[in-house]
Amino acid sequence: MELKVDRKYKKGTYTISNLFIDGDWVCNIIEDKDRGLHKGMSLAQIRSLKVKSKTAIPSGRYRVTMKVVSPKFSLKKYYMDFCKGRLPRVLAVPGFDGILFHAGDLKTDVATAGMSAGCLLTGLNTIKGALTKTKEMFEYVCKILMAADERGEEIWVTVGAPL
What we know:
The protein is of the alpha+beta class. The chain has helices spanning 43-49, 77-83, 134-150; strands spanning 2-10, 14-21, 24-32, 60-65, 89-90, 99-102, 110-111, 120-127, 130-132, 155-159. The chain contains three helices and ten strands.
């Protein structure tokens, strides 16, 4: 399965993208600021440009796994009830750890870059600089990825321009 995060709107503190799964548009993604990082950069270059919890992951192609229980999100009842704490995890992102696809604020159902800390938040871009319907879109995306995982398919995501 191939996911594509097509970064469209790179604003001051946030980046909004379109998420495609096997070529079909699914929802929007909000991330932190795109600082021009890419997977081909050295770790030293990435670290010199990265601002902790305020930087989008480097563009590139990455494996996604559904097999890791998130230590942080497994503490939230919503995620345990929905996916047993197994959120889509992006693997081997240079200079970043624990990059997940997840919803934004579970009470307001809104996502902003300030909630991201490098992660890819799902939703619909109906508000400037934010996403709504984050839980609904997370569940939609997660169900597709869980089904692919159960079929034994590899899941890949290309973020920004592939290298």
